[in-house]
Specification:
The protein is α+β, with helices and mostly antiparallel strands and about 200 residues long. The chain has 3 helices and 12 strands. Strands 1-4-3-2 form a 4-stranded antiparallel beta sheet, with no helix packed on it. The protein has a 4-stranded antiparallel beta sheet with strand order 5-6-10-9, with no helix packed on it. Helix 1 crosses helix 3. It is elongated.
Amino acid sequence: MAKVKSPLQSYDASGQIGKSAVHFTWKGIHCIRNYVIPANPRTDAQIAVRADFTAAVAEWHLTQTPTLINTAWKRWIERIRKPWTTLNCFVGLRVKALQAGHIFTSFHTYALVEALGDRITFTFKGEETSIPRCYFGTKLTYTPRQTDGVWVPVSNWWFFDLTSLSTSTDYYFWVKAMQANNDTQSGMFKERTAAS
């Protein structure tokens, strides 16, 4: 890549010139590089990776876009301190799991049942095979307590009951599948217990 020190063809050039050079600005510096036609390898591995990404994006749009779920993923991103969008986070986790040969379905359709003075109960739509555990605590980055979900076969929901909580306190919680080779997880939810 050549850095332009003085006007070359034009001072503010950008884009391609024929099929030989491309002018662009990089960090405020006018640059030129060769025009390159990107390779598009259609190897079996590349096709499989593209299929994983396509499936992950489709699942996001089907199950994770309601505001409450999206907000939970934003909190998860705050927790792990990554410069991601919610879509990037979900797709990245799902594709990483699939490429490792693991399962990654989704917990979706979160519903708060009740938030009393000493307990929070909620449900998630998910698969029976997920066997989820909820991790919870009073800080976004520290969720040391845990409880397992209870499968409700009539409705295909997972039910969670967080007990022995302090009154008038914000609680953060997230859900993760517990069996080996299953990386399914939720974003980070937040609810406040009622005053006593």
